């Protein structure tokens, strides 16, 4: 039975407490997939005193960063040669191929942002990764994983026509053996099915199956059978369904909930933009579709309330990692075992992962490499690519800088520097 959530943080603080070297994890995350060595991180940090964070405004703190001293060659991707993606869509592929100045594999160089009219419409090139070898393009850290994957069960799915060029997706809602949250799989493509959803339930009727989404083909008024007629082609009169490409790794994004970035227009992070961009790529004609695993681990697993406290600490001068530690949480309290189990349930074992986070690559592969990440597609902020609609703020610049410097995210630092310098609040 799913366990109920319980507060993960003591209600009272010890004003003399230092950031805890082994902070109490989020209840969902007791498998400690994520192996940040917090004690190391804490000892390396020049943390402000608990009750007296740096008494300077965050905007000034960021503008005072020594941007020139930042390494522009930081790289975690050291595979020997760029391999052309086997999975990119025809449009995706042609965008890549026409871009003759595409970045190299090791440290992709991107168009400096913020030059009006200089938009190149580039999209990031997939990078081959291999977690079984050192320097395989996904960091060195071995995540601590549960020995067995959690159980997951897709209880319902429904067709959702989207605002993204009329493309349709199927929203799958899961229950699991680890927590009581409603984790989701957003599936673009008509060939991807959930094994647990399709499994017959004792005593259910065809109408029960139709209502919980365990049908083939399409629903229409008056339909009574959960099995589609043989000749049904899966097209709807109003929507576009992306056809999955057989035998090719599907594009996957594992996304953690961010109420602030996805719902209330926060410019503190790039979460909303990343979700939109993942959906856009999976909606491209010929893309083969894709899966967004949407995990309810708000605030890197510490919950919304604690994240809001962390934002106040950030306004008082801490960065995103320091703020978590000051609140006695890990820098990152997330795990990805549920994502691994959900992807397996959806029949996706070879994947192309949209991420900059090296720990995600290793963690989603699971304790016995139940999933294999074949390629990583970097998530380059739109603003850095000269695209419109990208998030520009001092806060997001500082946030990305910290993710690169302290969390090992595979983005180039010089781009953050340029982005920060050109920021208009
Ligand atoms: N604690 C904390 N969480 C934050 C902050 N800003 C964003 N988040 C959370 O960070 C998470 C971002 O998750 P993702 O975008 O899936 O992943 P990521 O680790 O950034 O890696 P990518 O795959 O490269 O995007 C979400 O759960 C956000 O709510 C912050 O300042 N503090």
TrEMBL record:
<feature type="region of interest" description="Disordered">
    <location>
        <begin position="1"/>
        <end position="56"/>
    </location>
</feature>
<comment type="pathway">
    <text>Cofactor biosynthesis; riboflavin biosynthesis.</text>
</comment>
<feature type="domain" description="GTP cyclohydrolase II">
    <location>
        <begin position="245"/>
        <end position="373"/>
    </location>
</feature>
<comment type="similarity">
    <text>Belongs to the GTP cyclohydrolase II family.</text>
</comment>
<feature type="compositionally biased region" description="Basic and acidic residues">
    <location>
        <begin position="26"/>
        <end position="39"/>
    </location>
</feature>
<protein>
    <recommendedName>
        <fullName>GTP cyclohydrolase II</fullName>
        <ecNumber>3.5.4.25</ecNumber>
    </recommendedName>
</protein>
<feature type="region of interest" description="Disordered">
    <location>
        <begin position="73"/>
        <end position="124"/>
    </location>
</feature>
<keyword id="KW-0342">GTP-binding</keyword>
<dbReference type="InterPro" id="IPR036144">
    <property type="entry name" value="RibA-like_sf"/>
</dbReference>
<dbReference type="GO" id="GO:0003935">
    <property type="term" value="F:GTP cyclohydrolase II activity"/>
</dbReference>
<dbReference type="InterPro" id="IPR032677">
    <property type="entry name" value="GTP_cyclohydro_II"/>
</dbReference>
<keyword id="KW-0378">Hydrolase</keyword>
<dbReference type="InterPro" id="IPR000926">
    <property type="entry name" value="RibA"/>
</dbReference>
<keyword id="KW-0547">Nucleotide-binding</keyword>
<keyword id="KW-0686">Riboflavin biosynthesis</keyword>
<dbReference type="GO" id="GO:0009231">
    <property type="term" value="P:riboflavin biosynthetic process"/>
</dbReference>
<feature type="region of interest" description="Disordered">
    <location>
        <begin position="219"/>
        <end position="240"/>
    </location>
</feature>
<dbReference type="GO" id="GO:0005525">
    <property type="term" value="F:GTP binding"/>
</dbReference>
<dbReference type="Pfam" id="PF00925">
    <property type="entry name" value="GTP_cyclohydro2"/>
</dbReference>
<feature type="compositionally biased region" description="Polar residues">
    <location>
        <begin position="73"/>
        <end position="101"/>
    </location>
</feature>
């Amino acid at each position: 039975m799913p366990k109920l959530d319980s507060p993960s943080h003591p209600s009272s603080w010890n004003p003399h407490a230092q950031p805890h070297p082994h902070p109490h994890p989020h209840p969902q995350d007791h498998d400690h997939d994520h192996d940040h060595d917090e004690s190391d991180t804490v000892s390396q940090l020049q943390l402000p005193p608990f009750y007296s964070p740096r008494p300077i405004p965050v905007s000034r703190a960021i503008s005072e960063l020594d941007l020139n001293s930042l390494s522009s060659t930081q790289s975690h991707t050291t595979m020997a040669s760029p391999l052309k993606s086997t999975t990119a869509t025809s449009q995706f592929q042609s965008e890549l191929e026409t871009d003759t100045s595409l970045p190299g594999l090791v440290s992709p160089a991107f168009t400096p942002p913020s030059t009006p009219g200089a938009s190149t419409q580039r999209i990031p090139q997939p990078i081959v990764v291999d977690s079984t070898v050192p320097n395989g393009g996904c960091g060195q850290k071995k995540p601590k994983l549960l020995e067995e994957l959690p159980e997951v069960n897709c209880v319902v799915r429904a067709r959702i026509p989207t605002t993204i060029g009329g493309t349709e997706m199927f929203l799958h809602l899961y229950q699991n053996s680890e927590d009581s949250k409603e984790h989701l799989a957003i599936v673009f493509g008509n060939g991807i099915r959930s094994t647990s959803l399709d499994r017959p339930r004792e005593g259910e009727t065809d109408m029960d199956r139709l209502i919980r989404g365990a049908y083939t083909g399409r629903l229409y008024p008056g339909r009574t059978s959960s099995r589609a007629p043989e000749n049904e082609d899966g097209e709807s009169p109003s929507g576009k369904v992306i056809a999955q490409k057989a035998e090719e790794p599907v594009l996957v994004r594992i996304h953690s909930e961010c109420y602030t970035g996805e719902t209330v227009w926060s410019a503190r992070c790039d979460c909303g933009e990343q979700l939109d961009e993942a959906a856009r790529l999976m909606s491209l004609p010929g893309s083969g579709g894709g899966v967004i695993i949407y995990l309810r681990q708000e605030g890197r697993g510490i919950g919304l309330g604690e994240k809001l406290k962390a934002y106040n600490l950030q306004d008082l001068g801490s960065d995103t990692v320091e703020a978590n530690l000051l609140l006695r949480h890990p820098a990152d309290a997330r795990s990805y075992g549920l994502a691994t189990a959900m992807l397996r349930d959806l029949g996706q074992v070879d994947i192309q992962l949209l991420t900059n986070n090296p720990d995600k690559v290793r963690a989603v592969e699971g304790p016995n490499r139940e999933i294999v990440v074949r390629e990583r597609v970097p998530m380059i902020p739109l603003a850095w690519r000269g695209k419109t609609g990208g998030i520009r703020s001092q806060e997001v610049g500082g946030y990305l800088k910290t993710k690169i410097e302290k969390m090992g995210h595979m983005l180039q630092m010089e781009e953050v520097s340029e982005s920060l310098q050109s920021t208009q609040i």
